[in-house]
Automatic annotation (TrEMBL):
This is Transcriptional regulator. Residues 101-191 form the ChrR-like cupin domain. It comes from Seongchinamella unica. SUPFAM superfamilies: RmlC-like cupins. It comes from the Bacteria.
Length: 217
């Protein structure tokens, strides 16, 4: 059972569909581990649809009606339902991460103890990556310009503010400098979503910046 959760604002944006895609995947994965947030998400969705139904109808002008009518004449491509997954099935990327199926991904070495794999989500504003931290090792101390979301998939890690296990969801903003250390008993695999490039603050790790496509300060 997860002990660290997305805050209300994030959950609200997730439920209303306004959260960027990479961050949504991170929240969605957390919901797989957390009954409490899953229930809150369902309630927010119900609330959203109730509010939508109560909205007063808006007056529209004739041009909109003409546009709609003209589109009715357009030829419509038939939809194929054969490969459509069940409506409530998680997207393939999430299913794969939930299965722990990430060995064959393209891993880049960050330090001797840390490797990362960037995954494409189609969200160009957010970097979505898996981090593999060897048992007992640390990710170099770093800051970032925007928000950093982390979700633990395997093992656990600690930083200056707490200890995190599988399913835990951690949000850090630009001011919080931290240095996560994996637990000693096993390797840690976590997801990191960044909405601005990461910046290592220890001078000796500046050399790894090219791996992460970081502009040195
Ligand atoms: Zn939760």
């Amino acid at each position: 059972m997860a002990n660290y959760h997305p805050d209300t604002r994030l959950l609200n944006e997730y439920s209303s569909g306004t959260l960027p895609l990479a961050q949504s995947v991170c929240v969605s994965l957390h919901l797989n581990y957390c009954d409490q947030c899953r229930r809150a998400h369902q309630q927010l969705q119900q609330l959203g649809s109730a509010l939508f139904e109560e909205m007063a109808p808006q007056q529209v002008d004739d041009s909109l009606l003409r546009t709609v009518m003209s589109r009715l004449d357009d030829e419509v491509q038939p939809l194929s339902y054969q490969s459509t997954p069940a409506a409530d099935a998680p997207p393939p990327l999430i299913q794969r991460l939930m299965r722990g199926d990430y060995e064959d991904l393209g891993w880049e070495k960050v330090t001797s103890d840390v490797r990362m794999s960037r995954l494409r989500t189609g969200d160009i504003d957010n970097e979505f990556a898996l981090y593999h931290i060897r048992a007992g090792a640390s990710i170099p101390r770093h800051t970032h310009k925007g928000t950093e979301l982390t979700l633990v998939l395997e093992g656990g890690f600690s930083d200056e503010e707490g200890h995190y296990e599988v399913g835990d969801f951690i949000m850090r903003d630009a001011e919080q400098q931290h240095s996560p250390t994996a637990t000693r008993d096993r390797d840690c695999i976590c997801i990191g979503v960044l909405d601005a490039p990461i910046k290592f603050t220890d001078w000796k790790y500046r050399v790894v910046n090219p791996f992460l496509k970081i502009q040195p300060s």
